[in-house]
From TrEMBL:
Organism placement in taxonomy: Bacteria, Bacillati, Actinomycetota, Actinomycetes, Mycobacteriales
Name of the molecule in the record: Aryl-alcohol dehydrogenase-like predicted oxidoreductase
Sorted UniProt keywords: Oxidoreductase
Origin superkingdom: Bacteria
Presence of keyword tRNA-binding: no
Length: 339
């Protein structure tokens, strides 16, 4: 697989792997199977591995970020660190819903402690791309990024990223330290970032890492209602409440994929690469899967070229979507709720 350059000189594979997929969020996998998928990703050339300190079930008797997904990724890194571009995140405390507890923190003390904790769990001495997972509304983003930059100066982090930030927040942060990438939801059915955030990335030379590029699996056409009812997707507005209404979205994707002789996933991933090119932004989507077979299919998407009719059809999907993309009750949880 070819590599791309995001921002700040960061080189990654053109497709990444969202390791959250092998946690409990979407059904999960046992550690042996999950590690097998991670190794299969690297074998396939998908060497940009994305995790976060909050992914995974908290260990008994602990509070705060679970860290269990980072510990799983550590088992991959133990043998293959030199092959992996490692991304992780901090800032979501894991205490959301706990009375009196902050859902996010971005104060300097928390920044430093989170970096050291992730390094310990990952069993490595440096993080290639370290994101602020969600900003702390009580701390200026510039202050948080200044503390993150200290970790770069200390040699603990190579590049900085931000997740679900607005265009103004990105500019404020970038003025403090170069930002390599913004990670937010972006796909054929989640396009709000194209209004302000993506243009700001193009302006500043910042790469974009789309999460949930396959619509949490819905756009693949392989999910069943029973599957999503058993995990968090069943409680989302688009997949849970509007399963029937959004079958019209799926029909458009399936029609394009069938005509081109590719899978649904390949079609929508190819659309994202084309959308990035149109916007002048390097993109590295991070679909997740628990199947090595699906991994290989997704990796092949980087070589799929869409014709003008396919792009036009997929562009039309945004007008058909029922339900918003925010999976949290707080509108400010995603960038669109703060712009």
């Amino acid at each position: 697989m070819h590599t791309i350059s995001l921002g700040d000189g960061l080189q990654t594979s053109a497709l990444g792997f969202g390791a959250m997929a092998v946690t409990h969020v979407y059904g999960g996998a046992d550690d042996h199977a999950a590690l097998g998928v991670l190794n299969a990703a690297v074998d396939t050339g998908v060497t940009f591995i994305d995790t976060a300190d909050v992914y995974g079930e908290p260990e008994p008797g602990t509070t705060g970020p679970a860290g269990t997904n980072e510990k799983l990724v550590a088992r991959l890194l133990a043998d293959r660190r030199d092959e992996v571009t490692l991304a992780t995140k901090f800032g979501i405390t894991g205490l959301g819903g706990t009375e009196g507890a902050k859902a996010t923190r971005g104060d300097a003390d928390y920044v430093r402690a989170s970096c050291d904790a992730s390094l310990r769990r990952l069993g490595t001495d440096v993080i290639d791309l370290w994101y602020l997972h969600r900003r702390d509304p009580d701390v200026p983003v510039a202050e948080t990024v200044a503390a993150m930059a200290e970790m770069v100066g200390a040699g603990k982090v190579r590049h900085l990223g931000l997740s679900e930030v607005t265009a103004s927040e990105l500019r404020e942060a970038h003025a403090v330290h170069p930002i390599a990438a913004v990670q937010s939801e972006w796909s054929v059915w989640s396009r709000d970032v194209e209004t302000n955030v993506v243009p700001a990335c193009a302006e500043l030379g910042v790469g974009f890492v789309p999460y949930s590029p396959l619509g949490r699996g819905f756009l693949t056409g392989t999910l069943t209602r029973d599957q999503v009812a058993a995990d968090r997707r069943g409680s989302t507005a688009r997949i849970g409440d509007n399963w029937d209404a959004n079958q019209r979205v799926l029909a458009v994707v399936a029609d394009v994929a069938s005509r081109l002789g590719v899978t649904n996933a390949q079609a929508v991933l190819a659309w994202l690469h084309a959308a990035g090119e149109r916007a002048g932004v390097a993109t590295a989507p991070i679909p997740g899967t628990r199947s090595p077979h699906r991994l290989a299919e997704n990796a092949a998407a980087v070589d799929v070229v869409l014709d003008a009719d396919a792009i036009a059809a997929l562009d039309s999907i945004a007008d058909l979507v029922a339900g918003g993309r925010n999976i949290a009750a707080d509108p400010a949880w995603i960038s669109a709720g703060r712009e």
